[in-house]
Design brief:
Blueprint (H helix, E strand, L loop, with lengths): L2 H15 L9 H5 L2 E3 L8 E3 L2 H7 L5 H11 L10 E3 L3 E4 L3 H12 L14 E5 L14 H16 L3 E5 L7 H13 L2 H6 L1 H48 L2 H36 L2 H9 L3 H13 L3 H25 L9 H4 L3 H10 L4 E3 L2 E4 L8 E4 L7 H16 L3 E7 L3 H14 L5 E7 L2 E2 L16 H16 L2 H4 L8 H22 L6 E2 L2 H4 L7 H17 L4 H11 L6 H11 L1 H11 L3 H20 L8 H24 L9
Parallel strand pairs: 5-6, 5-10, 10-11, 12-13
Antiparallel strand pairs: 1-2, 2-4, 3-4, 7-8, 8-9
Helix pairs in contact: 1-4, 3-4, 5-24, 5-27, 7-9, 7-12, 9-10, 12-13, 16-17, 18-20, 22-26, 22-27, 23-27, 24-26, 24-27, 25-26, 26-27
Bound molecules: arginine (ARG).
Length: 665
């Protein structure tokens, strides 16, 4: 059930019958101007087209347009008589009888009333795609959780979805562990316990590289700070000398410079902290001195791998399966799967060909020894082969595009990747367009950063990114404290045994992390706050899971099954006798609208908002409408039906968010 399109269809018919029909440039656009009502007092939806049409039509005004439209509208079967409000809004209130019938239908439908889209698209989703030589960290949550939710939601809507985990299994990170293995590794330990040992080698080399980079950067940052401070002082002076508007402008400029100074200082501080951490550790300090050229040496190991050096290829073949095992363990805990896992290495043999192809077609050319694609709209070209012959991340992405076109021929390709890669994707899409490598809509579904309590990217005390696994463990522990505390559990009969407690806290804990992530507009950064995420009240998955568990407990207390309720409604239908029933019923029928909104701009937070509003509507209903002691059998049947539907909708919505429910908590 999708009310806006239902109204749009009716408005489209009505508009074609209005006296001003011939004056409308794009009637469908006006017909589609249906929004949820700003205030439920005035209706459920509102049509906003009379205002723009009123401006367009000669000798008319919006209220007149609205009046004529209402005369032509055929809505009797679904809607009360529309009302005009304010400058020309048309308020639409759905008829109770219409809602009741739709709810009865929904009860008999195993898709919660969501009809599959009429013209399904083939959508390829590139998500998660971690660089695998290092353990997954907090930075991988967002792509994995958002990508998985989009995949499930679009599939549920009826689209054909192909998921592809574009593993970073071929880049510098392998140069890092190969270097680490050769210089600090113990082959026996790597053989016996590869995963933690490789992670350790990665950390050592990464830290040494960071150390030398920081040493180089400190004087740069110092100079930058001095330069910015001078500019800031000058700007401040100018602002003091200026008056009125001019002064305001100058003050703004000074403020913006002050911010730049602060950020340069933060960079300096973090570089100094990086240096201090190594200085404080005699073993690492000694290693740092002995490996002063480590940055370049790691790149050399990577180049040798790419040039098919037998030793490095053998190491890569030895390490890769363990790296994959490591990430697969996390995926299985997160309950995430992929149709394909075509890593960067898969495309390696195609890179030379793609560069040649672009050169031959005159789309790529040489500049300073490198092969580049020049684009009018960008200052810098896209480099696809460096002067030393090495290929880049971008080259792989071009080969990937062509492979996807040839193999899957998708209508859309979604890249669920950090916003910091925006420029890469802008260029990639521009090159794809210019070179016609693919015939699909390409979208960078970008997202912001997960921040710690201090508002900076979340790190451990030693400065490395927090491992994803330990984060999951912490969440499960926090969930245990909240949902398995003895005060709450006394109410459960029979009591929870240890196994149930473990299952509940795992589902609640993992759910909390996913839900919190998906609840934020993906483009903004958010602060990671575990205690808020697992709280039993507020916009959390714990609250949604608890609402689901309440629906099952109501059925248990009434000693009915879902099948009993379906049967009762088939016989008696649904009839509202309380405003809270209608509000909940309408909310449930808006499930499809929420899902379509997710697809509209690839934003799962619409679905999270929907789950929360549903849980809230259910809670109000539950406070105000007795089920067990309902006045009549018919009233009780309606209420039971709403309870069943709430349970189903919340369960289905959470499942699309990648979250599992529990029967009781
Ligand atoms: N491996 C990359 C990273 O960790 C992300 C890859 C995203 N997908 C792509 N086709 N570029 O930054």
């Amino acid at each position: 059930m999708h009310f806006p399109s239902l109204f749009t269809g009716r408005f489209s018919d009505a508009l074609s019958r209005c006296s001003f029909a011939s004056q409308l440039d794009d009637p469908d656009r006006y017909a589609a101007m249906i929004r949820p009502a700003g205030n439920p007092k005035f209706g459920d939806y509102q049509a906003n087209c009379a205002m723009p049409i009123g401006k367009l039509v000669a000798d008319s005004n919006p209220r007149q347009v609205a009046a004529e439209l209402i005369e032509q509208l055929q809505l009797d079967d679904i809607c009360e008589t529309p009302e005009i409000a304010g400058p020309g809004f048309i308020n639409l209130k759905l008829k109770d009888s219409f809602l009741q019938d739709r709810l009865a239908e929904m009860l008999a439908d195993d898709r919660c009333g969501v009809t599959p889209v009429a013209s399904p698209k083939k959508i390829l989703i590139d998500y998660s795609s971690p660089n695998v030589a290092k353990p997954m960290h907090v930075g991988h949550i967002r792509t994995t959780v958002i990508g998985n939710c989009l995949a499930k939601t679009l599939q549920f809507l009826g689209h054909e979805v192909i998921t592809d985990n574009h593993l970073g299994d071929w880049g510098t990170q392998f140069g890092i562990i190969i270097y680490g293995y050769k210089h600090f590794g113990d082959p026996e330990v790597v053989r016996q316990d590869p995963v933690p040992e490789l992670a350790k080698l990665y950390r050592i080399v990464h830290q040494l590289m960071g150390y030398h980079k920081a040493i180089k950067n400190v004087p740069k940052y110092e100079a930058e700070i001095a330069r910015l401070e001078d500019l800031h002082a000058a700007a401040q002076q100018e602002a003091e000398g200026a008056e009125g508007k001019e002064a305001k402008k100058k003050r703004k400029a000074a403020e913006s410079l002050a911010k730049k100074v602060a950020s340069a200082r933060a960079n300096l501080e973090s570089a100094r902290a990086t240096i201090a951490a190594t200085d404080a550790d005699p073993v690492m300090k000694q290693r740092a001195e002995a490996h002063a050229d480590i940055g370049k040496a790691v790149l050399d190991e990577t180049s040798k791998l790419h040039a098919d050096d037998p030793e490095n290829i053998a190491l890569w073949e030895q390490f890769l399966p363990h790296c994959k095992d490591e990430i697969n363990r996390i995926y299985s805990r997160l309950n995430v799967t992929f149709d394909h896992t075509l890593g960067e290495s898969f495309y390696h043999p195609m890179l030379g060909e793609i560069v040649d192809d672009l050169k031959q077609r005159g789309l790529a050319s040489e500049s300073d020894g490198a092969i580049c694609v020049f684009l009018d709209q960008f200052d810098a070209p896209m480099i696809i082969q460096k002067s030393d012959g090495a290929y880049l991340y971008a080259t792989t992405d071009l080969a990937t595009l062509r492979y996807r076109q040839e193999t899957f021929n998708p209508d859309e390709v979604l890249y669920v990747v950090d916003a910091r890669q925006s420029e890469h994707f802008e260029k990639l899409f521009a090159v794809a367009e210019a070179t016609k490598l693919i015939d699909a809509k390409l979208v960078h579904v970008s997202f912001g950063t997960v921040l710690g309590e201090d508002g900076r990217p979340m790190k451990t005390r030693s400065g490395t990114l927090i491992g994803l696994e330990s984060l999951l463990d912490d969440a499960v522990e926090a969930a245990y404290q909240v949902v398995c505390n003895p005060d709450r559990l006394v109410k459960l009969n029979p009591p929870m045994d240890d196994q149930e407690k473990r299952l509940v806290s795992e589902r609640v804990g993992i759910g909390a992390i996913k839900y919190a992530d998906l609840s934020h507009d993906r483009t903004s950064d958010y602060k990671f706050n575990l205690s808020k995420m697992v709280a039993l009240s507020g916009n959390t998955s714990t609250y949604a899971q608890y609402s689901f568990a309440r629906t099952t407990s109501i059925l248990r207390r009434n000693e009915v099954t879902e099948a009993d309720v379906v049967e009762r409604i088939q016989a008696a239908g649904i009839t509202f006798t309380h405003a809270a029933e209608r509000a909940l019923g309408l909310q449930l029928l808006q499930f499809q609208e929420a899902l379509q909104n997710v697809y509209e701009d690839y934003r799962p937070n619409h679905l999270v908002d929907y789950v929360y509003s549903t849980a809230e509507a259910f809670s109000k209903f539950n406070d105000q409408c007795h089920v067990l002691n309902a006045e009549t059998d018919a009233i009780q049947s309606t209420r039971l039906a709403l309870v069943v539907l709430t349970g189903r909708v919340i369960k289905q919505a959470l499942e699309l968010l990648g979250i599992e429910v529990v029967e009781r908590m």
